[in-house]
Fold this sequence. Notes:
Elements lengths: L20 E3 L5 E3 L3 E2 L8 H14 L3 E3 L7 H14 L8 E6 L8 H13 L4 E6 L25 H16 L3 E7 L3 H7 L9 E5 L7 H9 L3 E5 L23 H10 L3 H12 L2 E2 L6 H12 L5 H7 L28
Parallel strand pairs: 3-4, 4-5, 5-6, 6-7, 7-8, 8-9, 9-10
Antiparallel strand pairs: 1-2
Helix pairs in contact: 1-2, 2-3, 3-4, 7-8, 8-9
The site of NADP nicotinamide-adenine-dinucleotide phosphate has 29 residues, from helix 9.
Amino acid sequence: MNAAGLKSIDPKSIDPETVPSFTLSSGEKVPSIGMGTFGSDRYAPPEVAAAVAGALRFGYRLFDCAPVYGNESLIGGVFDGAFRSGLVERKDLFIISKVWNDMHGRGDVLLSLAKTLKDLVLEYVDLYLVHWPFPNYHAPGCDGDARNPDSVPFSADDYMAVWAQMESIAGMKLARYIGMSNMTVGKLKAVLPRCRVRPAFIEMEQHPSFGQRELFDYCAQEGIQVIDYCPLGSPGRPERDKSPGDVVDMELPEVAAIAASRGIHPSQVCLKWAVQRGGIPIPFSVHEKNYQSNLAAVTGDLLSDAEMEAMKKAERNCRLVKGQVFLWPGAKGWEDLWE
Ligand SMILES: NC(=O)c1ccc[n+]([C@@H]2O[C@H](COP(=O)([O-])OP(=O)(O)OC[C@H]3O[C@@H](n4cnc5c(N)ncnc54)[C@H](OP(=O)(O)O)[C@@H]3O)[C@@H](O)[C@H]2O)c1
């Protein structure tokens, strides 16, 4: 995207100063909502990049990226254009990226981040995450039955070898914070005592039917900020992540009732709930109406105590991203990934 297209803010835009923020253990404030950039194998990189440009103009300041989403170089063009045009300054954005599962070998993390920095046209990312806690990967766009015969179960020693590389890149100031994703309480208990630099963030699946209360509370107790992925229940997720019996969060009666009583869309109920709980939702949409509505949802009032109480009944323990494509030979089922 050239700088000219990013000159002006959207006239309907939301002042980022009015978006609620959370305070990290470091004392720094971060926006309480951001935008996801995974096109779910449905949206091509230019469509996602155009949405990032629109979102920047509208007032989004936090973006969740990853090399495996296949669009970092186009999104980097948008960021570069936004800085050149003066729409935003680098310090005003909070940009996240992640090391993918095929880059867990010795020396790989720095290489992976270097490619991301080149693609995103940045000198540093604000947060760099270990995308999954094992080196098991699948081909982009694969179906749910795909398995990689080289896949292995979680190993705390192997994870710490990756984490030591994360600590190095933090030391080099190439990532302001480092964090983890797709963890469990058991895995965190195995690795946190061994961290020289602790994770400032954990990114994990969170939506009304899947609040992961124990893990969420554990993170809070450890002073780790949670980032909520699939905050709307990811209705457009890839086919490999769909199973019979999956809950549709935006159609849950508990969500629908609050939406109806307030005259708002169910997506806004999900996002208000997320921020009220203390997570940072990163909803994805390439549609202007939707991504604008998502940011607007958290700038007005959130949910009342009575509504938050009613939302507890929406919990169905319904994990959507089961991760079965990461299973190793001999694993019983996707539940093994989440022990
Ligand atoms: N760390 C990880 O392993 C991990 C895993 C999964 C996702 N993520 C991150 O989390 C982000 C969000 O997850 P997600 O995209 O799977 O799920 P999501 O944000 O819960 O759902 C996105 C879907 O919701 C629809 N939508 C968005 N806003 C809407 C609105 N206001 N009204 C109605 N529908 C709306 C979109 O449809 P339209 O396109 O039609 O608007 C899209 O199909 C990803 O983009 C990615 O950055 C991280």
